[in-house]
């Protein structure tokens, strides 16, 4: 009679006390983030509600809440998006150079410098833009106005001080450049070595190896890093407030003296002297910025999740 062996049922391994504590702390931290986020949203909505229900003539400017916030939202999106357009390609190029082209000793030094640049306070960038960059752009913007004035971005007349939206965009691009570069560089360093060696073994050049192995692997990280930099640019306050010469209005002219402000800079400049409904109006503009930032981050997460099945081990 053949003996049969029964397979013992698979039992879950009991968690040790340390595992339970760590699991509880991790879960609590995640819940705490959601609670804080919900609390911030509730605070902004509650404080902004008087301005949402107030008559148009009581809102600063006397034209209503929408017409008050719209130029600020336009300036915020214009400066942040143009800064991202400048910074993202440069960040990817720098990350590729540091990872694949620079000698190891130079790459190590550049990595330290990139991390150090990301830690510089924003007010330092603002002072640099105001004192050094703005005067240097006066002659180039004059040339742009004379030769490319048919393009709305360079319609002019150019500002005599250089405190233009173009300078604010360049300052924002420099500020978010090290953040994007650091994240993308780490992603490229995680590219599977087997993928790179396989591409080179098949006769690919270094650029072809980067295009077929490194860039596809790091695509989601590039998107995530770009959205991280965009969020930084959307919420930047002091650098924009120092650099920009604000006159209000909605314009695509990047080199003129009439520039729309940004939401964050307007709150920083107006809040100390505001009272009553003006404070509620500023908080309402902050609520709009909060919503825009949340939408940007959720969109980036959706794009990244579409590629979560891609694995370097595949």
Automatic annotation (TrEMBL):
Record domain ABC transmembrane type-1: where: 73-300
Membrane topology annotation: Multi-pass membrane protein
CDD domains documented for this protein: TM_PBP2
The keyword Transferase is assigned to this record: no
Segments passing through the bilayer: 21-45, 65-98, 110-130, 165-184, 237-256, 276-298
Alphabetized Gene3D superfamilies for the sequence: MetI-like
InterPro entries the record matches: MetI-like, MetI-like_sf, Phosphate_PstC, Phosphate_Transport_Permease
Chief localization: membrane
Keywords (A to Z) from UniProt: Cell membrane, Membrane, Phosphate transport, Transmembrane, Transmembrane helix, Transport
Superkingdom, taxonomy of origin: Bacteria
Job description of the protein: Part of the binding-protein-dependent transport system for phosphate; probably responsible for the translocation of the substrate across the membrane.
Similarity comment text for this entry: Belongs to the binding-protein-dependent transport system permease family. CysTW subfamily.
Name of the molecule in the record: Phosphate transport system permease protein
Naturally occurring in which organism (per UniProt): Prauserella oleivorans
Gene name as annotated: pstC
